Amino acid sequence: MFVTLFTDLPDLVILNILRYLSPFDAIQAFYNIDNNTERILNLLIEGQCFSTIHHFRLSLFNFVCDYVLSRIGNKLSHLTLYDHQLGLAHKKQILLYLTNILSLHLINIVEITENDNHLSYFLHKQLKNLTIKFLSENHIEAQAYVCEQFIFNKKSENLIDCCLLNNYGIQLQHLTLFPNNSIEKMTVQLKQLSDLHVLFDHLLNIKILNIELCRWTIEDIKYDYTKLPKKLSHLIEFSLKSEHILSFNQIITIIRYLIHLKKLSFIYRNYDEYGIDINQLELTLNYLKNLTQFHFIIKFIYFNLNPKLTFENNIQFKQQWNIHTYKNSLYKNYLAYTQPFINRKYSISTDILFQDNSIDFSSITNLSLITHTKQLSILPFIHLLNSNFPSITHLHIVDSFGIEDNNNYDFKLPKIHSFDASELKISNLFQIFLQSMPNLIYLHVNLNVLLTYDLKLLLTKNKIKHLELITNNLDEINNILFYFSSLEHLVINSKKQSNQYTRKYLQIIFDWFHICSQLYIIHVKAHKLSDLFYLVHTESDETIHVQYSSEMLTVWK
């Protein structure tokens, strides 16, 4: 009987095997096989397996920076890095080898200091695509630096596509900005409407603009929208998300003057006492002579709905744009949306979870399911998810009231890989959900919910690699981690906790690595990190990297 070793296979066969694996899995499995490291390394490079180095353990990240990037050279055009990796990558001067980086994605950027600004190293002139996810609401220095010193500065003369994300909103007002001539596509979460006005005035050649507003804006804010047809003469696609941020009149006013649009979409949620002016919406769209695609989600709560202020009063307009509506008279909810449904992320109340099979929600991959009534349990609706939302992989349950339900439900959600249970009120619901998700990889949950169960039974053979716990009781975490043998990424979020516990030394963090052998990255988030830890200076080395700001501690192993 002949035994063929993996390393005896021809190069083409190995390359085909690598293509069936994710780059991360391929490297983890094969980069240091026996004495054939050099050959396998060349094949991994040829198979483009080092294109996502931000997922690597510290030792592998160092290896790639020291020995691999010099071989890749100009073959790599995109780079993604987390905040805690910037300093190390800057120290190793990786851009000396990566001379063709045209696309940059930076994740969880927290803050910068005058003497240690690693952002400036990576924000170079040749960038064409830039995505930055900011983490903190309080540290605005990094956001201001990116906007003032790069995006709205002559340094960004080649930048075409830009994405700036911060769930709290990015503020552009009062910054020193210069007009940008190069950006053609921008996606940004803004603080408020006045920041959108700043964009309108500074994006001279924008073609595609995707906006989410995060903070309520006063109705009578002053801005001359009549100049937009000339200012935004190239803008052909525009999307706007506003959840209880803008009035419907404000949205109509903005849209009215974007006369060059070919594609328009918006999400509007608010309280409208009698309804919304559908005739005004139709009149506004009539000004957009080039418009060929129109998508929206409108949901409002009303007091006394005027039938004349609904889509049912304008059948022709409703049919023209394939508008579906739903009214719940008991809970005063009105919902209207266009088909086909194009959004990948959506939130919906259980009291209006659709049972009409003609409605296609196959585009939804990220679903938030919210209970808004004290009379209904959430469980009877879950069996509808597989049929009504066949593509969802991320589920977020917002159980506002925590209705007990002792009935037996048998359902499986095999496609769910990510579950946010941080807002579940009733513990037994969590158990039911968890047992229905055999392929769960990401879990976000309150530690107190976990502590109510026999974890040995609940978490048997779980595949969870990413765990986020809401707690500031660090003493209980050790006992929890024993049941997560596959865990690689741990996040401790203490921001929502009110009780205070005794401060700990950082050694308690290092102990978690010993409990979970696969664990290699830990983040601890807090309003004030010094309330949780004695922040004694710890030197980073080749085996462990420690970084902290006032709000977040990262330990990378």
UniProtKB/TrEMBL annotation:
The name of this protein is F-box domain-containing protein
Provide the species name.
Answer: Rotaria sordida
Species lineage, top-down?
Eukaryota, Metazoa, Spiralia, Gnathifera, Rotifera
